[in-house]
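Consider this one:
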Amino acid sequence: MKHTNMKQQDLFLNAEPYVAKYDFSRMKSVRDKVYNLMQDSQWRTLREISLKTGAPEASVSAYLRDFRKEKFGAHTVDRRSRGDRVKGLWEYKLVENTSNETS
């Protein structure tokens, strides 16, 4: 195998990471699945959310962060450790912002 000096970012020179006409509806649909699941305010790990929605764990994590933003409702997303804290397993709960104001 021939070794090259290609860097990881070189692999994506011709690819835009997000193009609205291709990605918006797909990403909105998955974000909505995560939101709909989490509306019951139950504690879940990223893996549990991923298994129920079909979204990758990294995307689930990003969507949970999004829900805290004003443009996505300024909700509260609580986090706590599950089990032995040393293992680093976290679970999340959505607490919906029910006020009409998001500021």
About this structure: The chain is about 35% helix and 15% strand. The first strand starts at residue 44 and ends at 45. Residues 51 and 79 are 19 Å apart (CA to CA). The longest helix spans residues 20-38.
